Each structure stands twice: as C-alpha cells, then as structure tokens.
Amino acid sequence: MVYNIAERGCEPYIVQVRNMRSVIHSFARTSRRAITRYSKKFLYLPVTLEDEIPSLENVFSMKEMNYMPDLIVARFVNAKKRSDLIQHRYENMISKNKHYESNGILNSSTDITIKFIGDRHEKKQSEVPSNNTTMAAKCFIQWGMEGKLANRFINLCHASNLNRIPQNVSVIEIVTLKFVGQTPSREIVLDAWITDCQNTGFLTRTNLFPNKIRNLEGRKVNVITFNYVPFTVITHDKEKSTVYDGFEMRTFIECAEKLNFTWKLVLDEENLWGAVWSNGSGNGVVGMVAEDQVDVGFAGLYYWYSTFLWTDYTTALSSSGITCLVPKPKLLPSWMSLWLPFSAVMWIAVGVSILIITVVFYTLAKASNKCLGGAILNSYATWINCFLTTMGMFVLQSPPEPQDASHRPIKGFVISLLIFFLLVSSVYSGGLASILTVPRYEHPIDTVKELADSNLPWVNIHEAWVWSLLDSDDPISKTLVHNFQVLTEEEMTELSTQGETAFPLEKFASNHYSVPAHINETAIQTLRIMKEMMYGSHITIATRKSSPYKESFNQIISSLYETGIMLFWEEQMTERYMSRRLQIAIKQSVILSNKEGPTQLMVDHLQGAFVILSLGLALATVVFTAEMAYSTIKRHHERFKDKFRYSD
Questions:
Q1: Which of 34, 69, 271, 307 could lock onto 6 through a cystine, CB 3.0 to 4.6 A?
Q2: What is the pLDDT of residues 294-311, one digit of tens each?
Q3: Domain encompassing residue 176
C-alpha cells in the first residue's frame, strides 16, 4: 500500500501511528524501490489527542533521518501542568526563529493551520475572532485516513498569530530534527498551535518546512569516488599530504562551500564503479550510493538505466562519448600491388567485358565468313584464339589485321576495342604507379559497424563501459557487448602493442581524451583512434533516491555550467594531469599517410609481376611436361600396336 501511494506522487504525507520508527523504516524502504522521485514532507500525529508522544531521540537518531529533513511531529502537551516551562521554551523558540529568519533559513510567509474536523477540538473558520484572523488560505490539503479516523481531515492554511500562551489551553508542539550541524538528530521545536475558547492559531507562524539544506552548518556528508583523471584526481604533494582535484571534485567542493557542509571520502578502489544487484545491494560507487552507505558518488558517471532504478542523478555537469583505439591497419603485401589499382567490382566488370568480347569476336568472324565470304584468320577461327586475341589487346598488343576486303566489320570492331582497352590500360597504369610509390594499407576501422564486423575484442578494467549498450536491441550493440572483456591493467599493457585488441577511450566536450595507464607512447604507435563514437552521454553525480541534497546540487551545477567554469576546469585538469604528447599522438593517429612521402621503387614493389611470371613459367612447364609425356606414351602405344600387327 505504501508503495502504491508513493507512486501516485502524494505530498506531503500525514501519518497517525503509535510506532513511528516502523513507519519511517517502511517509507525509507519504499522510496528505494519506487520510481517516483521528489522531496517528501512528513507530518506525524499521535493516535489520540490525549496521547503525548515520548522523547523523539530514538526516532531522530535513526539512519533514515539522514535523508528526511522535512519531517515534523505534532506533540500534544498540557499547559495547566507545565505552563511556566512551556512558556520559557516558546520564548526561546521565538528568539531562535527570528534569528533563523534574519539568516534566510526560515520563510515566515508560509503558514500552516492544523484543524481536526469531527473532533472535540473542532473549530470552524467562522468562529475564529476577526481580530485574530489573517489573510486567506494559500493551500488546502486533505488526506483521508482509514479506521478510526475515516472522516477526519487535516487543513493546512493560514491561521491566527498569538503573542503569548494563555493559561488552561491545549498546546500542540510542532517538533522536527535539527538535521544540520554536528548534532543533526537534536530535537527542535518549530512552533506551537494554541487552542482555547478565545484564541486559535500558531504562536510564531514559522515555516514548518524550512530549507535546511541552504546552510548545513558543518554537517558531514559521505562521498565516494576514485582516482579517474580528469574527473577526480587523488594525489600527494611534496609534503605527502593528500591533494584532491579534478573538475568533478572541484564541483563537489564548490557545493560543500556553498551549502556549508564537511565531507568524508570513502574509497572502494577494488570495485571502482561497482554494481547494483536486483535486491538493491551492491558495491563500488553506484552500489554504495544505492545502499545508503554514502550520500554522494561520482567518477564520470553516465545516465545508466540499470542504476537509475536504485539511485538518483543530478543535472549534467558536462558531456562525453566513448570511442576506441583500434589496431592500425597493416601494409598490404607487395604481391597484391598488381590487383590494387582496380576494385573488386572493377575487376569483375573487366572480366565480363573480356568474355563478351570473345563471344562477339567469334560470332562476328563466323557470320562475316558465311555472309561475305573470304578466308577466316586463325586468330578468329576458334574460341581459344578469340580469347587470346582479346587478352592481347587488353595489354595493348596489336591484333592481326584481316587483309581481305570482306572482313571490314571485323576491322571496325577491332578499332573500337583498341580504343576501349587503351583507356582501361591507361587508368590501370596510373593507379599502379600510385600504389607502387605510395604504400597502401588495409581498410581501417573507423565506424562502430566496422568494429563489430572485425570481431576484435575490446577491453577495459570494468564492465561499466558496456552498461550503456546492455539494453539495446541493435545487433551491432549486441555484438560489441559480446566482444567486451574485463582485464587487469597488466594484461592490457601487454596487449596494447600486439595489434589485436581495441581499447575504449572517453572523449570530453573539450576534445580531449582520458588516457589510461596502459596507453603509453609505445602503445600509441600501433593504435589508431576511431572516427565514429560508440555511444555518449551526459556526466552526472549519483545521489540517493529522493535525496534532500539533489536540488541544491542542481542549482550550483547549473550555475557553474552556464558560466563555462565547468569546461574551463575540464581543460585545466587535462593540461595539468595528462600528457600533452599523448593527446596530440591520439588525435594524429587517424592519419595513415606515409610521413616520408613517396618511396623509391625497389624489387619488392615488383613482387606481383614476378609472381605472375613465376606462375606463367610454372604453368608452361607443367603443360610442356604433360604434352611430352602424352607424346611419349602415344608413340610407345603406336609401336606396341604395330608389333602385334606384324606378329599376326
């Protein structure tokens, strides 16, 4: 039931129960599982008006109070018995509230009236004396209750302002926890609701839900992160004292200064980003935030759906994307130089053209001889001769010219073929000259599809690098997730120079890259940056779901982002803590041209020609040997037949 109410976005909650601790614990568990997020306000009432809620120390000291600052308790007291004590307490309360108002902590413009309809303390608005009535109500909230209080409602609106507490009246204290400072669980009386036959209203008309986050007065906030340049930098200076830097760390420190809180760093360097499991438990940055072990976590976090179910995110600090360093394409073998001037489609077109020309040659020669008469040249007498004549023209060899006047159609066809093959051979010769002087490489991996098609494994130290792809139905994304592997830094350092593995890098809005330890100047000589991004997202800070700090953090982050300070910090951290030589090397790795320019022709460049010559010689030798063997066998066979013929 509590879960369904939470999903409806009800706010505030008015609860009437004897055991406050169990209800608070239920609300805390529900808020971790509910999808709806908002800052919740709670008003707890006793079961009966005669009950006096005992000391709230056990309630306000609960762990759940770390993210429930807007919790107030209505406590009924009897002014007959303790009028002097209460009067002294409320005089101090008025003095403190005036101090808070002067510091901007309390907003006196918001007033709440509590009215119990159907109870012996019921008092209609028309019965309140006119001299004690203020302006009309600003808000009216009704909350139906079950059981005994099925017809009882709460009115929250303006009410009278009393300057003192009369004798023999009913007093309702509005109590909350301090939340701020070094004693956050201390009890604070915000105001008092006074009811008698003549006066009804709040004593000081204080805002019952003041903004406690505006000034946390040194309250301790637990934060988790790890060394991940340029987001977070944890290092030591010359005096061996710890130095915290990084543009995310600076943003958090700025929030600490603005909101006046202290912080304690929690480290989980073994699990890094960690994980959150289906039961809400976890480890690392996102896991400890989800388990409420820390209040804030950051380390270049993205808006991951898998962790969004258990954590909350602030507004974006910046944006970044993931690309890959892939192996550089290798030089193509020199024996392939004869085939590289034309693409595969072009070679197919040339082959089909030669076959068609052969057929036309043979058909035209037969038709010309039949219709026009004359002798047919041997070059066009058979299919084989026509094919060899066509191949000769392809390499610019002159064909035999028919001398008979009746072969004019063949002459015209030969002239057109010579022009055609001259153009094809010229294009081929130009491409071949370019390939022999400028080295050619394998096709580089520039897109995500090409990376998936290559089936190259891409590796990193944590599976968080594929969280953004897990819920994708795209076949390419599924292939990338399948090819991802988690390795140690030592294993990745060993693989970085072997040219068989891809390494993801994070590219920032400032056009810089995060360079891990296994990518050094030696490794970058064998790697090349992809042109296309695999995926991208905004960078955020993780907080507990419905965290009271989120809105204040959002305001500070938005101010830093709008003024450009965030981008300035990002560039500054990159320049200060990362190698500029590596940054330049990564950006220039996309260039594949030979730095030495055209190369001098050597024997290696003619490997293709020698390969063809070798194949031709080998084929000729085989054919010649076969013909000689066939001739010898045939001659012996004829002699054997003659021998038996003479014997007969």
A1: 34
A2: 999 999 999 998 888 889
A3: 2-202
